[in-house]
Amino acid sequence: MKVTLPRPRLESIASTACNSSSPNYAPRITKYLQLGPLARIGPNNLITSDPEIFRHILSVRSNYQRGPWFDCLRLDPHRANLITERDIKTHNVLRAQMSAGYHGKDVDQFEAILDQNMAAWLTYVENNGVSVPGHPREFEIARSVQWLLYDMVCRLCFGHPFGFVEKHSDCYQFQQTLEERLPIVEKFAVLTEVNTWIKFISHIPVLRDVLPAPSDENGIGAILGLAEKAVKQRNGPGMQPRGDIIDSWLQRGVDPSLAVSEITIALFAGSDTTATSIRALLLHIITNPLVYAKVKQEINTAEAQGELSNPAAEAELKQLPYLQTCIKEGLRVFPPITALRERVVPDGGDTLRGVYIPAGTNIGLNLPGMLRNEVFGLDAHVFRPERWLEADEEQLQRMERVHELLFNWGSTRCLGIRLANTMIGKFFVEVFRRWDITSTHPQQPWKSRCHGIFYQTDFHVRITSGDSMRPLTP
Q1: Residues 47, 49, 52, CA angle at the centre, nearest 5°?
Q2: Annotated binding-site positions for heme
Q3: Could you say which residues bind heme here (predicted)?
């Protein structure tokens, strides 16, 4: 008997149907969850929120390749980087060459760099964002967190920040360019034929000017130019190793031109996702008084008992179970990526949940939908950290098995997990041990747009000194 997959009404005529990457993506996620774990959203496009299908598609020995969706993220239409490489063997080689840099294993004083960067941001906020009696201030923290993360990635890659925190502004108009271009890139991810056209016109000198170039004064091209200059310097005679990510990649055999592209991708992919995770968790905590009180109490108690250094060490963060639970729940309720990241069914086709899927079919991964799986309970749509503490051992294992897919799986598992988790933990410990934060516009706390990744603005807060104010250390 032929099995017909469910499909949304009128929306199977084009793969644009499931742009969960839209400003109001949440209702669409709910809509597709109602269709079940596997649904048709286009003539050759399916979407899944089934964790077992996720695991099957992304496993190390899987023959599923990345689909044409990934071509839209290329900075150079003729060359892929780690994120956009679709050939499995080539991707695995790049991953092996770059993993030590992303993990921080080859970065001298990895944690000290994070602490120095965090201290510079804390000093700026103390001087420009904290309210005192008689002088109330309203601080826009969404952009501020973005500048913190940009400088952090720059420091890890280049060995020095670009000045996002010091100037507290959009250096090289990088953020502005991303926000202008990502909605266009999002459409290219759906209308994949456009990528072939872009690849063609890039051979025409006059038309190539529409693409980012290292000679640009602003935007993505300007960052490419800075990366190109840095990579050339490392290959110059007599240059001493600097112990940063660029050094790691070059020493492990990454082609210099690829390193230039990879740095630029790392700057927005690594910083935007972590910044979104921090902003979303901050909003969920400060709008949940009981959660907020528990987090503050745990941090204050650990500090009073001498269990927190100044600044807090990476190992100490893991000894704060309630904070770690909040981070886990925040990532689940508000994952920083909603893009479908389609994979292609391999030759010979595949059978998923009893349904035969022909070779060449694109299957999109509905990450937000998957993280609202029934394993998390009837209130899976709600931010409730206690669910992780109430679960028995068997239930907890089932929840962990789904949650761990948040960072991808197998040979595509995110290489920046350590960096993201450490930076998120450090942010909340250092902020909450010093200050209290409230939203100044609780009825509309922020503006949030999504085009595969999120952009939040107008997140206005009031920051006041807390009970356990500590001196800042560089």
Answers
A1: 115
A2: 414
A3: 414
Per-residue exposure over 299-333, b if at least 16 CB sit within 10 Å of its own CB, e if not = bbebbeeeebeebbbbebbeebebbbbbbbbbbbb
| pLDDT value at 269 more than 50 | yes
Contact status, residue 245 vs residue 102, Cβ threshold 8 Å = yes
Name the nearest CA neighbour of 292 among 255, 248, 264, 322: 322
pLDDT, residue 247, reads 93
- Is residue 115 helix, strand or coil? helix
Report the binding-site residues.
414
Is-contact 244 157, C-beta < 8 A? Answer: yes
Helix (DSSP H) and strand (DSSP E) numbers for the chain: 19, 12
CA 344 to chain CA mean position, Å? 23
Which domains are delineated in the chain? 19-459 (1.10.630.10)
AA letter at 458:
D
**Nearest C-alpha neighbor of 84 from the set 44, 94, 58, 212:** 94
The enclosing H or E element of 350 equals strand 350-352
Q: What does the alpha-carbon distance between residue 391 and residue 397 come to, in Å, rounded to a whole number?
A: 9
Amino acid identity of 255? D
299: tokens are 């941090």
Nearest in space to 266 (alpha carbons), one of 153, 180, 110: 153
What's the CA gap between 23 and 27, in Å, rounded?
Answer: 10
DSSP three-state, residue 41:
strand
pLDDT at 31: 66
Q: What is the 3-state secondary structure (H, E, C) of 61-80?
A: CCCCEECHHHHHHCCECCEC
- Find the helix packing angle between 321-333 and 289-304, rounded to 10°: 150
> What are 124-145's pLDDT values in tens digits?
999 999 999 999 999 999 999 9
DSSP state for residue 413 in the 8-state scheme: -
